[in-house]
Amino acid sequence: MRLVLSEAFYRFVAADIEGAKVFVEQDYTRHYRGAFENKVKRRISEASARNIDEWFAYIIQSLGEEKAQTEMREDFNDLTHLLNVTARRLDGHEEPSAGGRNWSKIAGEMATVFGRAYELYRTGAAKAAKEQVDAAYFQYYEKLGFEKIVMARISGARASTVEYQFSTVKKEITRALPVETIRASLDTLASYITEDAAMLDKTDESPWGVFAGSLLIILREGFEAILIVGAIIAYLLKRGDKKTSAPCTGVLLSPWP
Asked: What is the pLDDT of residue 208?
């Protein structure tokens, strides 16, 4: 698919708009529609497949709008990246880790990046704002494995929703939509990331970790009980009372907490 999309972009650069559209449509019908799309729907989610559909439609629409070459290059790169990420998902790579940090901390760092993106856009630096959104996706959401672990522990549909929101923000920045719209979209994206991080942090403790912690508590409490019973028996023996069965019977009959 990458070669066909590259050829479509080269046609666009050569001012062959219709030829570029033909190659994009060819890539969509011959390589995506059918087996690839069905796998995405079945193994990831309907939302992810719909996102790819909308990206192809967006590229074809953009080709007819006489957009700048740099903007079209970014659009083609975004679609190519989306297809590559989707293909890697289907390959079933192993579940990543957070690199020693908790997910809520990572979400906080991403929120800071989103804030920078907003400030840049507000001051007229749209390209730099878009680069910050890319940094949040590539350096955090993808590189640290946030996206893959959301798929593994929450759902593929949720990962697709977040991915679609990243795409939405970038499209809105490219179209120079009002500052309020960009702010709302970035806030929505940040809320998705924060909610998912909180959910992942709750599920990060393994069952064996819970078992080990519970076992230590039981052993500690049991050891304290033995010390107390031993002290009582020692006191009775010291006093000359050899009937020590009562404390032992009391322990056996006492209710467990």
From this structure: 53
The residues, any chain, with a CB within 8 Å of residue 220's CB and separated by 6 or more, are none
Q: How far apart, in whole angstroms, are the C-alpha atoms of residue 120 and residue 115?
A: 9
Q: Within a 13 Å sphere around the CA of 239, how many CA atoms are in the beta-carbon half?
A: 9
Predicted confidence at residue 243, as pLDDT, reads 64
Lookup: tokens for 217:
């508590």
Q: For position 203, what pLDDT does the model report? A: 64
pLDDT surpassing 60 at residue 213: no
Number of C-alpha atoms within 13 angstroms, CB side, residue 223? 6
Domain map (residue ranges) of the chain:
1-93, 96-204, 209-253
Q: What is the CA radius of gyration of the chain?
A: 29
Residue 121 makes CB contacts below 8 A (sequence gap 6+) with: 129, 173, 179, 182
pLDDT value of position 87 = 83
Contact yes or no for 122/179 (Cβ under 8 A): yes
Instruction: Return the pLDDT at 237.
Output: 74
User: In whole angstroms, what separates CA 183 from the centre of its chain?
Assistant: 21
Tokens of 197: 């991080």
- What is the arithmetic mean of pLDDT over 104-120? 92
Question: Cα dist. 236→222, 225, 226, 252 in Å?
Answer: 21, 17, 15, 18
The label of the residue with tokens 């230590």 reads: 216
